[in-house]
Input
Amino acid sequence: MKAIITSVVTFSLLLTSFFATAQTTPEMKTEGTTITVTVPVKSDKGSVFFALHNADTFMKQGIQDLESPVKDGKATVTFKNVAPGDYAVLLFHDANGNKQMDFEPNGMPSEMYGVSNNVMNFGPPQWSDAKFEVETEPVSLDIVM
Output
């Protein structure tokens, strides 16, 4: 009998603790914020491909990939419902319309590209240089190529 009473009291305390915590926990957002990226482009040919990355997808397939035509020397996209966290944006101008980034025989890109934080290194971009923080407010980035 003592074991049953102890179990009931323990269960009641756990249940009360759950409800007390649930009332003090802030409401979770079901939607994230937006990241708007604008890039100046020297030629109105082709389009610009943008990829939003987190640390796990950096330099791989983006978690959101968007394409924008070039109009009046600019390309702009908006990534929607982005949860708070660290992200990076990679982009390239696909002037010839083949939907891939082209490279010279020596491995150097033959098409213009850009990285968040406007990092321009010799060699591939690094996550630590390109990342930026997203909180709950919309983010606007201007990236140069």
Notes: Helices lie at 2-24, 127-130. The first strand starts at residue 33 and ends at 40. Confidence is low (pLDDT under 50) at residues 1-30. The longest helix spans residues 2-24.
